[in-house]
Amino acid sequence: MAEQLPATHIWYGQNWSEGNGYGEVYFISGEIFCVGSPNTPPNEIPAPDDGNGTPGDGDQPAPGEYPNVFDCAGTLNGGAYWNYSCNTCMGGTTGITECPPLFLSKIDATQLKPCMKTILDTIKKLSNGSVAGIIQKFSGNLPGYNWILKDGGLPIGTNGQTSSIYNSSMGTVTTIFDSSKFTMGSDLSVARTILHESVHAYLITFFKTNLPNFIGSYPQMVQEWGIYNNWNDTHHAEFVRSFVNDIGVALEEYGKKNGYNLPSQFYNDLAWGGLTHTIDANGNVIETNWFKTNIPNILDRQRILNNLSAEQYGVNSNGNPQSKKGNNSGC
Ligand SMILES: [Zn+2]
User: Fold this and answer.
1) What separation in Å is there between the alpha carbon of 235 and the centre of ligand 1?
2) Please, what is the angle between helix 244-257 and helix 114-123, to 10°?
3) Ligand 1: distance of its center to the CA of 274 in Å?
4) Ligand 1 mean position, distance from CA 162 (Å)
5) Structural domains counted in the chain
6) 165 in the same domain as 272
7) Using an 8 Å Cβ cutoff, are 331 and 116 in contact?
8) pLDDT above 60 (res 214)
9) Do 74 and 159 share a domain, yes or no?
10) Ligand 1 centroid vs 201 CA: distance in angstroms?
């Protein structure tokens, strides 16, 4: 349902009031995406209204001007509504009838291998930058933000995989990590993978628990969904815009906590893990556009790829020995 967002349209947001009902309205090039419900208190003062209904100019729509009204579950003329007390879309087609319970184990690592659990425990103490903030969101009591980390086998070249299926009744998102991929790898290699997957988990949770704010925060992702037609590339393009720097910042803080004395550039190189390649229409592995655009010098890209490979396998991207800088992962 929500995956079929009309990605090619421009989204605008505002609050409005009408009679004794309040809601938030998002315009999609002439259609309305409406959340909230009558008599739901607004969380902001409603925008002034001159009734002319021009999208995006801060006005309330004129009655009947937009025939297509979607509820917060993305259902046309649906009955779902936004519950402000737990920031959850409920009713209608959601199947959710009450606020999701506060999941007790906010980050559930009981099914993770000990080698990764140890590294995760340090990551949970990070405080620098937005990605450390994401980990704290999952660690804290934010409703709907619960992250399950499990060990499991994954395809060649895949270290971790976060499911785009969000469990609305439990408020959980789940990532599988393949610890067997790190038997030759360092703790830094594991840490950069956990940080990377935490951003996927965050974007999925944010999307599923607060669509209006998600759209406001990442409007380009909504548009790019129509280009890439898959979560992975859509997410990764946003990673490069919004998160890759802070994955580097978090990784550096992790390194310092473990007594490493390494240049920031090394951490920033590792932050590119998972973002450098994608699969084209013919099934070939190719460098991503955002990798080539953001790191235009081929020698810099080569250094990044060598550091990523060495840190995980002890060899560079050509298979020649290159020692890793972190300690053995213990996996
Ligand atoms: Zn990824």
Assistant:
1) 7
2) 100
3) 5
4) 8
5) 2
6) yes
7) yes
8) yes
9) no
10) 10
Q: How far is the CA of 13 from the centre of ligand 1 (A)?
A: 29
Instruction: Please report whether residue 320 resides in a domain.
Output: no
Same domain for 167 and 245, yes or no, is yes
What pLDDT score was predicted for residue 142? 83
Q: Is the pLDDT score of 158 beyond 50?
A: yes
Do 70 and 78 contact (CB within 8 A), yes or no? yes
How many percent of the chain have pLDDT more than 70? 73
CA dist., res. 226 & res. 221, Å (int): 9
Domain boundary among 94, 121, 155: 94
Residue 230 Cα to ligand 1 middle (Å)? 12
Helices (H), the chain: 114-123, 129-139, 187-209, 211-217, 219-228, 231-238, 244-257, 264-270, 289-294, 298-313
The pLDDT of residue 196 is above 70: yes
**What is the distance in A from the centroid of ligand 1 to the CA of 236?**
6
- Residue 44: per-residue pLDDT: 29
pLDDT tens string 86-96: 666 778 888 88
**d(Cα 133, Cα 121) in Å, to the nearest integer?**
15
How many angstroms separate the alpha carbon of residue 287 from the centre of ligand 1?
14
On whether both 90 and 131 belong to a single domain, the answer is no
Could you say which of 67, 94, 121 is where a domain stops? 94
pLDDT tens string 15-48: 333 332 334 444 333 333 443 333 232 332 233 3
Provide the domain limits for residue 119. Answer: 107-313
Rounded to whole angstroms, how far apart are CA atoms 173 and 262? 33
Ligand 1: centre distance to CA 177 (Å): 12
Could you tell me the distance, in angstroms and rounded to a whole number, from the CA of residue 238 to the centre of ligand 1? 11
Q: Could you read off the pLDDT of 283-321 as tens digits, one per residue?
A: 888 999 999 999 999 999 999 999 999 999 999 999 999
Query: 195 CA to middle of ligand 1, Å?
Result: 10
Cα 224 to ligand 1 centre (Å):
16
| DSSP summary character for residue 43 | S
